[in-house]
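Researcher: I'd like a structural prediction for the single chain below. Treat it as a standalone chain; there are no partners to consider.
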Amino acid sequence: MPKLFARMWPRMRQTLDSRGMTEHRRALLAGLTGQVVEVGAGDGANFAHYPATVTRVLAVEPEPRLRELAAGAAARAPVPVEVSGASAGRLPAPDASVDTVVFCLVLCTVPDVDGALAEARRVLRPGGQIRFLEHGRADSPGLVRFQRVLDATVWPPLAGGCHTSRDIVTALERAGFTIADLRRYNFPPVRTPWSFHARGTATVG
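Model: Treating it as a single chain, here is the predicted structure.
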């Protein structure tokens, strides 16, 4: 992730949260229990919203500046949080050792989505789940074409590797997961290349 975007993201994230993203974060994490891995934790915005039924969060964040901020947020979290510099493609957890893997506004940036989902599947216990909140592919051919132009040109270098046109739900299904409780919505509530969000739960099919 470019250093400039890493410096800008915390303020951008705070603006998004103040305009309604906080409620989506809470809904994403509601009802979680046991051991959790959060992939791409950023500056730790989710940590405050984990329920007390979570016994431990292993939060991975490879970007140094964001990881430092996440460590500060971990110290204030209501549940135990360990922050690691690992990446989505190599999680520091044994096979079948965690109850939930959380992806929140991160799969647009990882270089290998299929590899990240395979790694999540490796660390999940039988009956485990993925919780996801991601933006992605638009719902009209015209906007999808525009997203693809952005992704092939200026947007990833400007936005920390973000790709606007990724179809995360399809990627989860391709990785062998079954989607439940899927909610699609626009955030903000207008039609832009960045507005199309999906939140839900994925279990091993």
